[in-house]
Automatic annotation (TrEMBL):
Spans through the membrane: none
Family designation: Belongs to the leucine-binding protein family.
Signal peptide residues on this chain, from the entry's feature table: 1-23
Record keyword Transport present: yes
Record keywords: Amino-acid transport, Signal, Transport
Natural source organism: Methylobacterium indicum
Residue stretches making up the Leucine-binding protein domain: 36-372
InterPro entries (alphabetical): BCAA_transport, Leu-bd, Peripla_BP_I
Listed name of the protein: ABC transporter permease
Pfam families the record matches: Peripla_BP_6
Amino acid sequence: MSRALARTTALAAGLAFAVAAQAQTAAPKGASDGVVKIGILNDQSGVYADFGGRGSVEAARMAVEDFGGKVLDVPVQIVDADHQNKPDIASNIARQWYDTDKVDAIMELTTSSVALAVQGLSKEKRKITIVDGAATSDLTGKQCTPYGFHWAYDTHALAVGTGGSLVETGGDTWFFLTADYAFGTALQADVTQYVTQKGGKVVGAVRHPLSAQDFSSFLLQAQGSGAKIIGLANAGLDTSNAIKQAAEFGIVQGGQRLAALLFTLSEVHGLGLKAAQGIVLTEGYYWDLDDQARGFAKRFMAKTGKMPNMIQAGTYSSVLHYLKAVKAAGTDDTDAVAAKMRELKVDDFFGRGGTVQANGRMVHDMYLFQVKSPAESKAPWDYYKLLATIPGDKAFLSAKASGCPLTQ
């Protein structure tokens, strides 16, 4: 490195340190209004109600309980609302929470269009968002913000996991059934890039509306394409309904394979092993992975009657990390807490030594699973067999490669 470049690098590093130090020095100590309030904003009645829903609210409450119910000697309160998968409704709720109800941070945010809208509003209001339920990698890419964090998974990780595994085992031609909004577009784009990099080819695609009931015309187009893999770039009940109706058309029996690009334990449970068996999927958590995972799952089951998926486990982790950052900062000031969130390691059953990049992306291992057949399952909720662990630095883009303007 030249002396001039070394001096420039040192000056830049020194400036960054000074700005961070100034933000923390200027931050008032303690909680600003006698309570730390966290909002869980997600779909509680629609197509993604089982994806996160009330289960994510319960997971957030469990995190607060495990933290001790207080931070900086003031109580921690969880509030929640149903955004109905509509960005305008979500933005109105978030604005009221910030302006009237003094909510400090909003989390979960199922549905990418909702997450992008609320993250944008939160930048304006200087409030923290942590996204667990939405997928688009744009949240920490071209639309990143200083206060936006992305936790459980993203479209890039799904492309590397499910998309990569199927291409490498011979699935080199693809046709996509894609949900017609930000998430579906991003997921199809990320998987397409990965498929083509591996030497595969996309032969076609069709978009369907959110909460579609009839997939017959879309499935017939996919069947007629002759593609080896039909990629379902959707989630929740849309994925479940597409799989059910694909069975009626005999698509799998005809030699084509279905790739459920975003499929969680909740949807497998709703669909049943007979219909879901053999599907390959990527998640960031499975309840039976090890003793740590089982410990949380047992408590969650006692409260909800269900095993948690990665969205619900991720919500627990994000709430816990936020509270640790507030405690470490000694204040609930947004800039100080955001700095601590990036500084602290993520130390829980979900993150397992995860790190938070400058763009807000939490990097942790992901897991490639295959759904068991009914004969392979030995107990209730015994649904997955582990195929591979995907290291975090492989699953997620680096901050530099993400396209985030803050890190270029």
